[in-house]
Amino acid sequence: MTPHENTVIIDKLVKRFGDFVAVDDVSLTVKRGEIFGFLGPNGAGKSTTIRILCALLAPTSGVATVAGYDVAREPEAVKLHIGYMSQKFSLYDDLTVGENIEFFSGIYGVPRDIRDERRAYALRMAGLEEKEQTKTSLLAGGWKQRLALGCAILHQPPVVFLDEPTSGVDPLARRAFWDLINELSHAGHTVFVTTHYMEEAEYCHRVALMYRGRVISLGTPHDLRKQLRSDTLPEPTMEDVFVSMIEREDAALAGGKS
C-alpha cells in the first residue's frame, strides 16, 4: 500500500432494521496510518457502522470496502485483514497472558514459524514481558485492554477497529492505551476508534460526529473547534463541538417538521 492509500471507503452506506434506519447515507474515507475517531451518543449508529465494516452485518444498501475488500461480497477476506476489539473483548481469564496470546495466534492463523516473533512483539508493545505467566484474571482493567489489543493485532492487520476500547478504565490507563494506538498508527496501521470520551477525540487525526445514523460533522479536532470559535467561546473544547453540533441538528430537524 502507498502511504496515502485509502484503507476504508464508505459510499452512501445504509442499514435498516425494519422501519428503523440505523445508518443513514454515510460516506467517508480513511487513509492508511490514520487514527480516525467516531463520536456520537448511544444509538447514533457508530457500533452498527463498525459491525458492517468488520463484515459482521450486511449493509442494506451502499458500498463499503476495507483493505481493498468489499464487506458485502468478500466478508471472509475482510475478516482476515482486520483486527477488532471492544470493551467486551473476550480474553480468557483462566489462561495466562502468554496462553491467551498463543490461543489467538491460532484463531487468527498466524503462521507457526513467526508465532514466537509475534508473541514477543505483542508482549513488548503491551508492556507485558514480565507478566507472561500471570493469569489474565489477575490483571487490572488497563492491562487487560493492552493484552486485548496485542491479541487483536497478532496477524498484523492493516486496519484495526476499536469499539469503545477504553470504557471503564482509569484516565492513566486510557492515556497509556492511546500511546499504543499512536504506535500502531506510526507503524502504518489504520485505526478506526469509537469513543464517548471527548478528550480522546483530540488524539485522533480526524473525527466524524455521528447522530441519528448520519455523519453531521467531519474534520480534524482543530478544524472542528475552530469552526465553533467566537467572542463568547474563544477556546471551544471537543465537548462544546459535540453539544453544539447536536443542538444544531435537532433544531434543523425540528424546523423541518414544523
Cα end-to-end separation = 50 Å
Radius of gyration: 19 Å
Query: Helical region count?
Result: 9
Unreliable stretches (pLDDT < 50, length at least 5) are: none
Based on secondary structure, the structural category is alpha/beta
Number of strands: 10
Q: Biggest sheet, open or closed, and with what strands and sense?
A: 6 strands, mixed
How large is the share of residues in beta strands?
Answer: 15-25%
**Overall mean confidence score, pLDDT:** 91
Descriptive notes:
The structure is a single chain. By secondary structure, the protein is an alpha/beta fold. Helices cover 38% and strands 25% of the residues. The protein has nine helices and ten strands. The protein has helices at 46-53, 75-80, 97-107, 115-126, 141-152, 171-186, 198-201, 221-228, 238-257, and strands spanning 6-17, 20-31, 35-39, 61-66, 69-70, 82-86, 159-163, 190-194, 206-211, 214-219. The strands form two sheets. It has a six-stranded mixed sheet with strand order 6-7-8-3-9-10, sandwiched between helices. A four-stranded antiparallel sheet has the order 2-1-4-5. β7, α6 (171-186) and β8 form a beta-alpha-beta unit. The longest helix is centred in the last third of the chain and has 20 residues, at 238-257. The model has no long low-confidence stretch (mean pLDDT 91).
